[in-house]
Write the structure tokens for this entry.
Amino acid sequence: MATDERDEVRALLGRISGAWQQGHWQELGEYFHENMVIRGPELQEMGSKGRDASVASYREFMSQAAVHELKESDPKIDVWGNTAVASYGWEIKYEMGGLTHHEFGRDLFVFSRESGKWLAVWRAVFFSAQA
């Protein structure tokens, strides 16, 4: 059963990634808990708490950046009952404000299953010097 649950979380991560890259903001919001929190590299809260604020953070980035390339590693996923934690590495190349950026990092997501549906409740973004 845990493998099936990990597959569900893996598929959800793919839908989250696809939704923000394609600008499907309403769809993205469907994957987030109403009290979703996004934390930055020092675990500081990024923006306001909640689903709308979390979606807005993705929307703001995409309104300012032209993403040229994004690579995400296969996530490592652990599941305990109605809680799941997933982490994966990423590499992104994008242009913003006339400058080209090439960044590496990791995302850490926490998911909660409510009424049979997995929702992201917490995300932390960590930058690294290289992959």
Remarks:
- The radius of gyration is 14 Å.
